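> example.struct
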């Protein structure tokens, strides 16, 4: 059941995401296409059937009513609706998909489903009545005319007397065969179990009728089915055999019986005789065979079977694969760097080792690519955010997506979805001007624009969220920060970049008023924390009156990264290549001191503090003179400084290992260490967190 539930959630969430994209695009075009209508109908039919199978009745019922609505629209065409009706339909569909998503989230969180979905059902039904009024609301496919139940006798007179009472009220049909199904006693929800049978029969594209007819929508039919059974009407013995194969596979079916409609036989050529059969717990014996007929030639199909080119893989399996590949990388490095092989000339070994390294690199690339997914899923969700806020805030804004096919690690995508959503909300709430006239007076397009872009740069993905709104007033930000007492130096010493970075401090908010979207002072600090948790950095640029741009620099993957190995005394550290700007040798004359006596060096006309790693971590080393060691100029977000280390050991691709959980008690992560890696000779190298390391050094000194 866990596997079934997982597949159900995956399929349903995928369909709801696709539906959101379709609705956003259709609303932009102010109309549904025929393909849109068919796609929505098919999606709802799928969600209805799978939800009924899983016995999630509220999801099934909402989907069923939307399916009914789009069945009517499909049969009657979109011309039957005016502009106002179409606008109402868009709002209704967004409301309905939100209701479906809310129920699916409850399933994911193992919470009970809603017991009252009457308001949303009422909205769907009333809209259907509204567009079908004036003679257009008639069912486009009326049920066949029925006569009386007495036209459904069994194959012999004894059976007629036995079931006449049971078939009271059953719709008459000219169909020659009926299958009467009884479900296991006490199984419960017999109407939904009957609906599951109906869905299974539809899946094999069988033409049939069933009674009761409204099992999926009318819970009162449960008592009728318990008392009389559930009936399926079929037109041929061949269809009967097909239906029986499906019915036998239904776990909740206890017995079934094939009933021959004598009245229909008298009105048509005599069909082959079918005898009653039943199955109690096991398959029933087959009916007595009829005289053989000449076999019907099978229909010729030139279509070859479609091969499945995509499969779903559990993320935990991919995690295990990546971990295993990481171990192979480490082991291969251990073998080729073994001290036992030092100073030995082994040509064949060297050649084999080189080939092994190539294969290991290829395996690593493939393993990592399996976890890569397009960022389009996250980007497309922002369409809905902009659409809803555009209506609620009455601000005409368009969202432009660039580079949405850029691929990034699945784990990283999940971690940055919320930060991107929060920044987009900020752009709509704070960035975009409240009235159009303000934009026109500033010489801007009356319609505001938010640009969400993603590009690859080596081992990183750069994501930018840019708006052309009012921009950020650095003077106001600085004044607010000063009032809140969060400045760490005189206000006059803050650069524009540093002032904008203040907005990412905990509790900082420029919104005086709490709204649905912002103003509680818990926002950008959480965004910054989430981005940094996946090894990323965030920076803000803004021009007053022109707009704001937030840039996220995210690693493609967190599992394997490029690092520079450095030594300090007998300890080794790894500095991520993405944080390194330059390495340089310095002389005593290059060093100047600030008022507190801290070392500073000038690089490219800017002054940067120097952090001595051996002093920071109390490591014993003989290299303490600035001329004997080496400086590494590093940068993280808005922090830029130089690290003083003993020696550069060289660039190496390292497998990132998380720190053991018990080390969390020692606040290691806030001490400038983000993880560790195992080197080829078996030594452990700590991976430095450049952002936290600077914060730690400031607090220490």
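> example.seq
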């Amino acid at each position: 059941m866990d596997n079934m539930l997982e597949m159900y959630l995956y399929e349903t969430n995928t369909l709801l995401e696709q539906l959101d994209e379709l609705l956003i695009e259709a609303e932009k075009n102010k109309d549904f296409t025929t393909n849109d209508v068919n796609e929505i109908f098919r999606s709802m039919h799928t969600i209805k059937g799978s939800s009924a199978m899983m016995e999630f009745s509220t999801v099934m019922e909402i989907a069923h009513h939307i399916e009914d609505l789009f069945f009517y629209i499909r049969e009657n065409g979109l011309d039957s609706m005016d502009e106002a009706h179409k606008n109402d339909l868009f709002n209704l569909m967004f409301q309905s998909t939100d209701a479906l998503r809310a129920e699916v989230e409850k399933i994911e969180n193992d919470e009970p489903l809603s017991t009252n979905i009457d308001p949303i059902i009422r909205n769907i039904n009333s809209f259907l009545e509204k567009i079908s009024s004036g003679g257009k609301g008639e069912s486009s496919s009326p049920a066949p005319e029925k006569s009386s139940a007495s036209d459904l006798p069994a194959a012999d007179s004894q059976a007629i007397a036995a079931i006449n009472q049971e078939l009271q009220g059953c719709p008459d049909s000219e169909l020659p065969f009926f299958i009467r199904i009884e479900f296991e006693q006490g199984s419960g929800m017999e109407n939904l179990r009957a609906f599951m049978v109906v869905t299974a029969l539809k899946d094999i594209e069988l033409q049939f009728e069933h009674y009761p007819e409204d099992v999926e929508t009318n819970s009162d039919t449960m008592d009728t089915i318990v008392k009389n059974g559930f009936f399926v009407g079929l037109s041929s013995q061949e269809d009967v055999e097909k239906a029986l194969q499906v019915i036998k596979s239904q776990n909740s079916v206890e017995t079934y019986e094939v009933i021959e409609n004598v009245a229909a036989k008298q009105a048509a050529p005599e069909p082959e005789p079918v005898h009653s059969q039943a199955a109690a717990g096991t398959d029933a014996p087959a009916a007595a065979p009829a005289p053989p007929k000449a076999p019907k030639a099978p229909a010729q199909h030139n279509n070859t079977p479609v091969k499945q080119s995509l499969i779903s893989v559990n993320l935990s399996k991919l995690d295990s694969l990546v971990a295993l590949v990481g171990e192979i990388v480490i082991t291969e490095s251990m073998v080729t760097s073994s001290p036992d092989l030092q100073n030995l000339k082994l040509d064949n070994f060297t050649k084999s080792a080189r080939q092994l390294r190539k294969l290991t690199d290829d395996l690593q690339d493939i393993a990592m690519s399996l976890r890569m997914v397009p960022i389009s899923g996250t980007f497309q969700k922002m369409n809905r955010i902009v659409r809803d806020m555009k209506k609620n805030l009455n601000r005409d804004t368009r969202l432009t997506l660039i580079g949405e096919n850029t691929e990034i690690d699945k784990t990283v995508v999940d971690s940055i979805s919320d930060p991107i959503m929060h920044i987009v909300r900020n752009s709509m709430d704070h960035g975009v001007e409240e009235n159009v006239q303000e934009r026109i007076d500033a010489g801007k397009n009356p319609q505001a624009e938010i640009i969400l872009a993603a590009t690859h740069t080596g081992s990183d993905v750069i994501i930018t969220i840019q708006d052309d709104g009012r921009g950020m007033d650095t003077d106001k930000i600085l004044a607010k920060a000063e009032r809140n007492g969060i400045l760490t130096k005189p206000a006059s010493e803050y650069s524009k970049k540093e002032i904008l970075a203040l907005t990412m401090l905990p509790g900082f908010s420029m919104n005086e008023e709490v709204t649905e979207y912002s103003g509680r002072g818990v926002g950008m600090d959480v965004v910054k924390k989430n981005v940094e948790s996946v090894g990323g950095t965030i920076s803000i640029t803004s021009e007053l009156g022109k707009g704001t741009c937030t840039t996220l620099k995210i690693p493609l993957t967190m599992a394997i990264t490029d690092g520079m190995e450095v030594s300090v005394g007998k300890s080794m550290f790894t500095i991520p290549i993405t944080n390194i700007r330059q390495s340089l040798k310095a002389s005593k004359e290059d060093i100047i001191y600030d008022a507190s006596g801290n070392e500073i060096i000038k690089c490219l006309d800017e002054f940067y503090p120097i952090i001595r790693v051996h002093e920071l971590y109390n490591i014993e080393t003989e290299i303490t003179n600035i001329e004997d060691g080496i400086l590494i100029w590093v940068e993280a977000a808005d922090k830029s400084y130089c690290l003083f280390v003993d020696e550069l050991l060289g660039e190496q691709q390292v497998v990132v290992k998380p720190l053991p959980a018990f080390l969390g008690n020692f606040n290691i992560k806030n001490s400038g260490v983000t993880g560790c890696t195992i080197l080829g000779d078996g030594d452990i190298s700590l991976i430095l967190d450049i952002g936290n390391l600077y914060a730690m050094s400031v607090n220490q000194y």
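> remarks
Residues 134-172, 270-308 have pLDDT under 50 and may be disordered.
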